[in-house]
Specification:
Strand content: under 5%
Shape: elongated
Order of helices and strands: HHHHHHHHHHH
Distance between the termini: 52 Å
Number of helices: 11
Radius of gyration: 19 Å
Helix content: 40-55%
Largest sheet: none
């Protein structure tokens, strides 16, 4: 069923394409009142959250406790916008920003959605920046986004340089990003395309 697919993360798109009713609420059991959208979100399948919203799922349905998916999510320290940024889901991030999500909300470890977007394709990073993300906010370790080291010691400057994003490189360097540091895969950040 659609609800099982939303929980497991398997075959949901097939059911969406076949015209399944996206807004059916579970009538009994553990997940009473939940729709596929609630379940996909609850089980961390953010790609399917994006797909369900794009397919027209009603985002204002209330569960058996009278709460919408937004009521439940906004109370969490790490919300959908953090997850959309982490997954690089630009359309979902844009939707959430238009719903009033705060691009500067910190998770338990002090990370903003901006920080989660720093090691992805930088479309979400730019989207957050355009929607008021504060590049100077520091996480619980006292680091701003340009100081965070991601996989293999890469920084957002490495990703921006690799993707040829000269304007973002300039902004990060102006803020204090280390140009000559954090050797990654035998390269300095200035050896990537934006600098060559």
């Amino acid at each position: 069923s659609l609800h099982q697919a939303a929980i497991s993360g398997y075959n949901l798109n097939i059911l969406i394409d076949q015209g399944a009713d996206l807004d059916v609420q579970i009538a009994e059991g553990t997940y009473i009142g939940k729709t596929a959208l609630f379940l996909a979100a609850q089980f961390g399948h953010m790609i399917y959250v994006e797909d369900l919203i794009e397919a027209g799922a009603n985002t204002e349905i209330k569960d058996d406790e009278g709460k919408t998916i937004w009521d439940i999510d906004r109370s969490r320290p790490e919300n959908f916008l953090h997850k959309a940024a982490s997954w690089g889901l630009k359309d979902l991030a844009n939707y959430l920003l238009n719903k009033g999500y705060d691009p500067n909300k910190k998770s338990d470890k002090g990370w903003t959605p901006f920080m989660y977007a720093g090691d992805k394709e930088l479309e979400v990073f730019h989207l957050l920046l355009e929607n008021g993300a504060d590049i100077d906010i520091k996480n619980n370790d006292g680091k701003a986004v340009w100081e965070i080291q991601y996989e293999k010691n890469k920084t957002v400057l490495h990703y921006a340089a690799y993707q040829g994003d000269l304007e973002l490189c300039k902004l990060l360097i102006k803020k204090g990003a280390e140009v000559n540091g954090f050797i990654t895969e035998g390269k300095y950040s200035f050896e990537y395309p934006a600098f060559t």
